[in-house]
Write a structure and sequence with these properties.
There is one protein chain. With about 375 residues, this protein is of the alpha/beta class. The protein has 15 helices and nine strands. It has a six-stranded mixed β-sheet. A three-stranded antiparallel β-sheet has the order 1-3-2. The longest helix is centred in the first third of the chain and has 28 residues. About 35% of the residues are buried.
Amino acid sequence: MIDRDLVIHLARFARVLRARGVGVGLSDEADAVAALTLVDLGDRDEVRLALLIALKIRPRDRAAFDELFARLWASRDASLAEDRTRVEASPRPDGRAAPPRLAWGPSAEAERARRDSAPETETIGYSPEALLRRKPFDECSERELAEMESLLARLALRLATRRSRRLVPTRGRGLVDLRRSFRRAVGTRGEFVSLARRARAVDEPRLVVLCDTSGSMDQHTRFLLAFILSLKRTAKRTEVFAFNTSLTRLTPWVSVGKIPQTLARLAANVPDWSGGTRIGECLAAFVERYADELVTPHTVVVILSDGLDRGETAPLVEAMRALRAKARRVIWLNPLLGDPRYRPEARGMAAALPYVDCFAPAHNLESLERLIALVAN
């Protein structure tokens, strides 16, 4: 399993590189996370070379990269030194010293300075990021969407780089593969010159996401699509559709530009954006036109909708039955489910539920984080 702190600190490092004009994309960050799982994180040269290759640093950006990497490593060493002092002062109950944690990010001194300079009114243990993760989308402002952009990208990166249970050959660290090791030894007269190893593969999800852009979803659509756009850039095997009174395939429209500009373009070009909704007819159109091509036993279908349907329920039932038969899982994320008073009694939602493997809320960032576990199962 990829360490969450490692992903966070790598995202910060990539953001600093971009601020210096170094072109680093989300797919490069995903490659870097995968690369760091294959090297010794305590070896400065191995880590530097892995990042240099995975982030695709160009020769003209090498000086800036080396300068920022040196700062990153210096802050790591400072944090490790403080951890050793703390560990030696507080041995474990069995008398042995606990190993120091690997710290990537600000040094302990810098972190203390940040805490000391924080306003007294700030609640202990509740960072602005934590508050933003728990804030309902329908209470967020346009400014907060910009603040959420990096969190959405980080969440998408975690989903796209999760480890599967499948073991594959690796040249780096991993479990010893005895069978391949013995096979190698045949060519060296029985001498084990090197051991073959296996590691858990990065299991890029196969997703089809259908997002409701009708008027009743207006307060949530912008944030949900921002997450989907971030996910599409990282997980290449993601197909994105919008539906309201008709179905629109968004995958060809997703670009590497800024999320707000992309959302504005979508809102201007998707028919009947913020209008009515016919969920059943739209899902039936998806099944008829795209399901044979895009939905396989390895695909997870994610529907983002409040289930408020103006159309007939019969097409919805038939479409959901067909999706359930083809897909690995069908997940329905409903923003209204974040309200404890909500009951799925609308006829569209009630008709779809028997064919849904997982029914979950999607009203804030914290609820979207659970999608990682839902897709993995």
